[in-house]
């Protein structure tokens, strides 16, 4: 199979997120506001919170700032752009409540990286505590784009169920609160946007996904030198991939190339975004009965009358053309069956996988009819002629704020409890 991914392509995709700023198709209004829980935004693969003054969420339109002006409190998280969903969920938890990241004793020993990460002051330290004014739990909503949708699902699973493996090997006084499994009711609503819940067949365009990721980091670091490392945060500290004070670029690149991170295929984004990895994740990450789940897909392809394949629309960013064509015609029978139902896509993610988890999952996906059901995926449908990054306001000249005001209104309409 011809290898479509390359370090140069990944660099272009990452850096081009800065260039432009998405618009929704028309969306129906939600009902009146019932809660004022803050929204936490979680970016996808290669994402960031703010880079060179350009926010990931909305580009120059700045979705976070706009929602705050509309009376919707919100926070923007920044987790490892290339890390696994487990590691990202642990980082997200620490970022919200405050404290040091604990990746878990069992997990860190299994994959061979450091157990502890960075320490954060807390975006919303009162999360999960009882509000004395209402007598109810301080909850949040979570919105995830692309891989960010997988990450917030993992966080919700761990909050309510914890992890038996971590409890079995960790002394009680050392156990991270995230793994206790006693945090039911901390999340009100989850909304995923263009999330590859079943992975993306774009993963099969790369012969060695971990090597490609490694090469991309080396290339970026070598290209930008110290300034690149200062501006773009790879957040792979748990693997020792952090440039130390006074360390030369050459020494850092040597450590990147020899890191144990590339010797495993199952604790990096490259595995979780692979359909096999996504299926594995779906077997243990389930929709929680008390949380309202929403999903939104994007589509920017059309069916070829000649071949029946899905081809990029003119509205798609040309950077996605090759991968979109790959997704739009790719099939396989194993290890995960991929047929023509996967072909319609937004440039990186198939529409069907953005609906919600199918592979290895018992979660129910239902069309959103105006009255959401908890514990199920309320599918909001697909946004037409809008690609994977344009949907969040990047690499597009259209305004994403109406769509995200709708999202905020929808989440605020959920019952307070």
Summarize the structure.
Helices cover 31% and strands 15% of the residues. The protein has 13 helices and 15 strands. Strand 7 (130-131) and strand 8 (136-137) form a beta hairpin.
Any key phrases for this structure?
Rossmann fold, 7-stranded parallel sheet, two-stranded antiparallel ribbon, 13 helices, 15 strands, globular
The helix fraction, in percent, is: 25-40%
Quickly count the helices. Answer: 13
Low-confidence stretches: 1-27
Order of helices and strands: HEEEHEHEHEEEEHHEHHHHEEEHHEEH
Provide the spatial order of strands within the biggest beta sheet.
4-1-9-10-11-15-14
Outline type? globular
Catalytic activity: a triacylglycerol + H2O = a diacylglycerol + a fatty acid + H(+)
Domain Lipase-like C-terminal: 35-398
Keywords: Hydrolase, Lipid degradation, Lipid metabolism, Secreted, Signal, Transferase
Subcellular location: Secreted
């Amino acid at each position: 199979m011809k290898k479509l991914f390359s370090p140069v392509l990944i660099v272009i995709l990452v850096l081009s997120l800065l260039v432009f700023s998405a618009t929704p198709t028309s969306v129906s209004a939600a009902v009146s506001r019932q809660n004022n829980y803050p929204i936490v935004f979680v970016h996808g693969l290669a994402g960031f919170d703010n880079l060179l003054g350009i926010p990931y969420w909305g580009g120059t339109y700045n979705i976070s700032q706009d929602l705050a002006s509309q009376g919707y409190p919100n926070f923007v998280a920044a987790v490892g752009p290339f890390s696994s969903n487990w590691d990202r969920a642990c980082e997200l938890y620490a970022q919200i409540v405050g404290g040091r990241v604990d990746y878990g004793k069992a997990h860190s020993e299994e994959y061979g990286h450091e157990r502890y990460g960075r320490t954060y002051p807390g975006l919303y330290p009162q999360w999960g505590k009882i509000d004395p004014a209402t007598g109810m739990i301080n909850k949040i909503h979570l919105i995830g784009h692309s891989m960010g949708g997988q990450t917030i699902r993992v966080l919700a699973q761990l909050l309510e169920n914890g992890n038996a493996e971590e409890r079995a090997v960790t002394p009680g006084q050392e156990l991270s609160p995230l793994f206790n499994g006693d945090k039911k009711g901390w999340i009100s609503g989850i909304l995923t946007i263009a999330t590859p819940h079943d992975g993306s067949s774009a993963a099969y365009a790369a012969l060695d996904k971990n090597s490609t990721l490694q090469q991309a980091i080396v290339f970026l670091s070598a290209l930008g030198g110290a300034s690149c490392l200062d501006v773009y945060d790879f957040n792979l500290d748990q693997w020792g991939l952090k440039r130390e004070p006074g360390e030369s670029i050459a020494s850092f690149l040597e450590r990147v190339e020899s890191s144990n991170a590339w010797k495993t295929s199952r604790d990096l984004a490259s595995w979780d975004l692979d359909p096999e990895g996504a299926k594995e994740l779906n077997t243990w990450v389930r929709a929680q009965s008390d949380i309202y789940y929403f999903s939104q897909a994007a589509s920017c392809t059309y069916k070829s009358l000649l071949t029946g394949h899905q081809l990029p629309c003119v509205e798609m960013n040309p950077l996605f053309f090759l991968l979109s064509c790959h997704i739009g015609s790719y099939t396989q029978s194993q290890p995960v069956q991929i047929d023509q139902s996967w072909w319609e896509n937004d440039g990186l993610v198939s529409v069907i996988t953005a609906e919600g988890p199918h592979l290895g999952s018992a979660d129910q996906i239902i069309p959103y009819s105006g009255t959401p059901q908890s514990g199920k995926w309320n599918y909001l449908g697909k946004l037409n002629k809008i690609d994977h990054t344009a949907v969040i306001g990047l690499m597009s000249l259209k305004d994403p704020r109406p769509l995200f005001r709708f999202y905020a209104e929808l989440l605020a309409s959920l019952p307070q409890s």
